[in-house]
Design goal:
The structure is a homodimer of 221-residue chains.
Chain A lengths: L2 H18 L7 H8 L3 H7 L3 H19 L8 H18 L1 H9 L7 H22 L6 H22 L6 H20 L3 H12 L6 H13 L1
InterPro entries (chains A, B): DesT_TetR_C (IPR054129), DNA-bd_HTH_TetR-type_CS (IPR023772), Homeodomain-like_sf (IPR009057), HTH-type_TetR-like_transc_reg (IPR050109), HTH_TetR (IPR001647)
Pfam families (chains A, B): TetR_C_46, TetR_N
GO molecular function (chains A, B): DNA-binding transcription factor activity; transcription cis-regulatory region binding
C-alpha cells in the first residue's frame, strides 16, 4: 500500500473503533491489531492517538455534513424530515463515539475537535438558511436555527441513552420543533414571521408542519 | 486568615477572574496578585490551576442551582419566567467563563468539570419535574425537559455572542419554547398531554404561555 492509501485505511479502521466505543477506551494497540499492522507502523503514519482521532473525526464530520444536502424541491417540512432521517442514521452508526464527543471531556475536547464540530454545525446552519431562501439571517432567525441545531444534537444524545423512544418519532418531532420554535420567535420579528408564513403556505395538511398546526389548535381550544 | 478562610477567599478571587475571561487566559500569577499573596502560597492551598478552577466552578454551580429554587405558587409560566430572569443574571455575571465552559475544550473539559455541569442540569431537571407535580418522568417528558434545558444553554451562549437580542425577550421566549416543545411532544404521549393541559388550564391569558397560544392560533389561521 502507498502512504496515502495506508493512512486512509488506518483512518477508516480507527473511525470504526472510535464510533463503537468511547475514544478514551480505544488503544493504539487495538487500532494496529484491527488494521493488521504493528504499533510502531501506526506511529509512522500518525504521531499519536489524538492525531488519528482528529483525522477520523474529520472524515466523520465530512460524512455528516454531506448528509445535510437535500434538493430544493417540494415542501420544506418534508425536506427537513428526510435530512433528520439521515442524521439519525449517522447517529445510529456512530453512537458511542458521537456521545463521547458531544458530551466533551479531556479525551475528545481538543481545539481541533471543537473546530470540526463547529464546522458541521455551520454546514447545517448554511443548509437551513439556503432552504429557507434567506441569504443573511437576522439575529432572531440565526438564534432559532442555531438553537434548533443544538436541540437536534441533545435529542439525539438523549435517544442514544437507552433508545426509549422510537427514532422515527423523534425525526418527525424535530421537524415540528423547528416550526414551533420559529412560531414562538415570529412574535418578536416580522422577518421571521414572513419566513414562517412562506414555509407554512406550501405545506400540505398531512405534512409534519401541517399536522403540528392542527394539533396546536386542538390543544389551545 | 485561617486555612479554610484563605481557601474560600482564593476561590472567590479565582471565580471572579475565570468569569471575566476564558479560563485558559487566566494565570496563577494573576490570581496570586489579585488575592494579594505570593504564587507559592497559592500552590500551598491548591496543587494547580485545574484544582482551583474546579473549586471555583463548584461554587458557581451551587450558586446557579440555588437560583432555580422557586416557590410552588401561582401559574407555571410566571414561575419559569422568574427562574429565567435569574438564569440570565447568572449568565450575565459569568459571561466569558460560562461560554468557555459550555463550549468545551482542553482547558475546561475535565471529568470533574463535566460532572459539575451535569449536576446543575440535573438540579434544573428535578426542579422542573417538581413544579410540574411529576415524581417520575415518562421517557417523552424527560426528553422535553432535558432537551429544553440544553436549548436554554444554547440560547444563553448565542445571546452572549454579541448580545444582539434583548435578554428580557429571550427570557420570555424560553418560557414559550418550553410550552411549544411540550405541545409538540404531547401529540405522541397522553401523559405529556395531560401535564400540558393541567399547566395551561391555570395560565392567565396575559401570561407567556397564554400569549403563545393566542399567537399560534393567529399564525395557523
Amino acid at each position: 500500500m502507498g502512504v496515502e492509501e495506508r493512512r486512509q485505511q488506518l483512518i477508516g479502521v480507527a473511525l470504526d473503533l472510535f464510533s463503537r466505543r468511547s475514544p478514551d477506551e480505544v488503544s493504539i494497540d487495538e487500532i494496529a491489531s484491527a488494521a493488521g499492522i504493528s504499533r510502531p507502523l501506526v506511529y509512522h503514519y500518525f504521531p499519536g492517538k489524538l492525531s488519528l482521532y482528529e483525522a477520523a473525526l474529520k472524515r466523520a464530520s465530512e460524512d455528516l455534513a454531506s448528509r445535510f444536502a437535500e434538493p430544493r424541491e417540494g415542501p420544506l417540512g418534508a425536506r427537513l424530515h428526510r435530512v433528520m432521517g439521515r442524521f439519525f442514521d449517522f447517529v445510529d452508526e456512530h453512537g458511542p463515539g458521537f456521545s463521547a464527543l458531544m458530551r466533551g471531556g479531556p479525551a475528545v475536547g481538543s481545539t481541533t475537535t471543537n473546530a470540526l464540530v463547529d464546522s458541521v454545525r455551520q454546514a447545517a446552519f448554511d443548509q437551513i438558511l439556503s432552504h429557507l431562501g434567506v441569504s443573511e439571517a437576522s439575529p432572531r432567525l440565526e438564534l432559532v436555527v442555531r438553537s434548533w441545531i443544538s436541540l437536534a444534537e441533545s435529542t439525539a444524545l438523549i435517544w442514544l441513552d437507552g433508545r426509549r423512544i422510537p427514532r422515527a418519532e423523534l425525526e418527525k418531532q424535530l421537524v415540528q420543533d423547528f416550526a414551533a420554535l420559529a412560531a414562538v420567535s415570529a412574535a418578536y420579528d416580522e422577518g421571521m414571521a414572513a419566513v414562517l408564513r412562506g414555509a407554512l403556505r406550501e405545506e400540505p395538511a398531512e405534512s409534519p408542519f401541517g399536522e403540528l398546526v392542527g394539533r396546536l389548535i386542538a390543544l389551545a381550544s
